[in-house]
Structure formats: structure tokens, C-alpha cells
# Entry
Amino acid sequence: MRNIVFAALIAPVLSSPSFANPATDGDGLVMSGQSGALSVAGYEILADQVRLPETGGVILSGATLTRPGRDGSVLIRQLEAPDTGLLSQLLDPGAACDPTQTETGTVLARDVRFRPDSDLGVPGGREEIRIPLLTLETSRIGCSWRLVASADGVTVSGVDGSRIDIMTIEGRLRMSGDALRDVDARLDLIGVDLNGAEGPGGLRAEEVGFSLKADLSEGALIDLVGAGAGLSDLLSATSGSVTRGGAYMRGLELVPDLFLSERDLDRLGLDGADPVIGDLELTASLEAGAFRVRASSDLSGLVRGELDLSGSLPDPDGPAVPDAIASAVPVPVELIGIRFERASVSYEDLGAAAVVEHLSGRRPETLVSALIGDRIGRVSARLPGGLPATVNVAWGSILEMVTEGRGAVGVRPETPFSLLEFAVSGMMGPAMAASRTGAWREN
# Structure
């Protein structure tokens, strides 16, 4: 079902751009009566009726879109565009731009039926996405391109009879910079409801959203991460970049007895459990080396908590860390200079501990100790001076919070501190480290 949702999200992008003006960029149109066949940027389109009004633009009726070598298809009852150039923009927004060009308008696609390529869907089946009306408002000013998309009454149907109904999808996309690779995108789904073949599917949400702002050009941060570049190259790429992203889910309602299979209900110990209701949010940003990560959840029957972390990454041109210090600290040498402004974690168990214990057969604190605690103990034992005691006190505070099922810990220094400064103060014992970092704890 997750893949079905992904296909629904990309439907506005994949269903309409391919209907570009057959008279531009060498694209061919072969007419047979009122029908026509178009070849557009590697796509093939068969239309029962093609009209080119005297006022400009293009109207395609009964159109079928396919792509050689792929098995997906798009059916559109009618596509309307007041300016054929807008369709070309939707097809290839990254094409060479004219700095003096200005163009704006709206494209309408009615009764869209999208069957994604099989490698995008659920293994062993093909799903279908239906969009009664897709509206695309696009504008281009020089080398800056903007798209606002909206669709109402979207339905994603699975071969097993399941269905996702989405009341409204709203998307915004802005592309600018060299080759239009500087991207700022946001997607919001309003009124999401999962239904099974025999009735409600046990999952609803008032709102679900995603956002991303990043430079997608070659050699930029995102490209380097995908290429598996080393830490030094990644740190160098962050110095002048802006990358932000996030996701949220509000008004979530999950009914375990409807959403989970009998086997999963038994494994998780959730048979007959009350609905899980609440919100989730995750945001992260990196701007010219400064970072912030925030995550929060408030889910009845599971967990309430928040993570907030902010600071700055090391300057790649900063002073080198002496080998003697680098070899004594169990983190990559490139990150020893990372600085922290604030860090906090709060946690309240509302039922998640019972699920973990039912699933693993061990209490959360026992499981966490086995997975992480033993490794921390082995590493801290090799550290010099008072660092072992400092690390053990910090870890003990987190473990006690997990054991008690509630609490909060964090650091709030008067001035940002680096890992190197923490190590130096920690060598003089937990009290000195707590004084430098402004460590605090609440039950």
C-alpha cells in the first residue's frame, strides 16, 4: 500500500507533462480524420480527437499515453491548454531557458486514469489512480519556473480491492538556478482514508505533507550523498548550500484490528487495542553549515516525545585535529569539530513499551542495553581520564528515562561546544562536562 501512495503522489507529474505541443521542438503529429498520433519526447500518444483552436493551444480528447519499453499508461478524457508552450514546459522544465521569456497559464486535465509502471507498484499486481480534475498553474519568468497543482477526489485502487481516497492534493514546485536544479517543493494531502475490500481499512489522516528545498545539480550535497562521497567532500558541499526537508501527519487515526493482519496483531499484542490517534512531524534543515533536526510524536496508545537538535558542522578549512586526540575519540575525525547549540530528548511511554516487550520478549531497557549499552561500555572503557565516567553518566540518564517510561534530558550550554571540548571537559569528570555543556534532566 505504501507504493500505491507513492504512485498517487507522482500521478500529477506523470499524467500530464507528456502532452506537449506536437508542433514544437520537432515533435511529430500524424492525423487521421479527427484522431491523431503524437510522438513527444520519447512518449507516444494516441488521441481520438485533436483540436488546435485558432486562438492557440491544443485540446486532446480520448488520449492514451504510453512509453516504449515501459508498461504504464495514462488515459485522459480531455486535456486543455491555453498555450502550447505551457505543455512543453511541463514536459521538460529543465530545458534551456530564455532569460527574457515570460509565460503563464493554466492546464486542465479531466478524468485522468493512471496505471503506473509495474516496477513502481505492488509486486504481483497493478493499481490504478483516478483523478476527476487535475489543475496545473504554471509560470516562467526567465530561468525561474513555478508550478501549482491541485486535484480533488483522487482515488488509488489496488488489485486486492483496497482503496485510498484523498479528498484534495495540493502541490507547489519552484525550480530556479543553473539548469533549474534549485528545487523548492511541497505536497499536501488533505483527507486521506484507507479502505479495504470489505470496508474501512483502519487508517485515516486529516492531513499528510512533505516538503523539500535542495540543490539537485551535479556535485551538490544531495548528489554527493547519493554517490556515497566521503565526509570531507560532504562537509565542503554544506558550506554554501541550503537544504531543508520535512514530513508531517496530523489527525492520524489508526485502528489496529482493521489495519493489521491477524498475524501482526498477535505478534504486536494489539488485538482489541484502542485506536491510535495523534500527530507526527519531522523536519531537518542545513543552511551554510548550520543544522537543526526536530521530530515530535503524540500518539495515544504508543508514545509522546520530542527530539530537538541544533548546531553547526565543522569548517572543512578549520585547523586539523592532532592525531593523538583523533585516535582517542570514537567518532570520525571529520566530525570532531561539530558544535552543538541545543539538544534535548523527551519521552513518555503510552503503550510502546508493552508492544516492544510483546514483540521481543524483553523490556525496552533490557533490549536497548543489549543493542547499544554494551557497545557504549566497551568504547568508553578505552577512553582516557575521566571520560569513561562521563560517558557512563550520560548513558545512564538516557537508560533511566527508558526504564521509568518518562523523562527528558538535554544540553543547554551558554556558548556552543564541540565534541573536542566535550572530550576535554569530560576527561576532568562528569561534573566538569555537565558544567560546560549545560546538561540537564527532568523526570
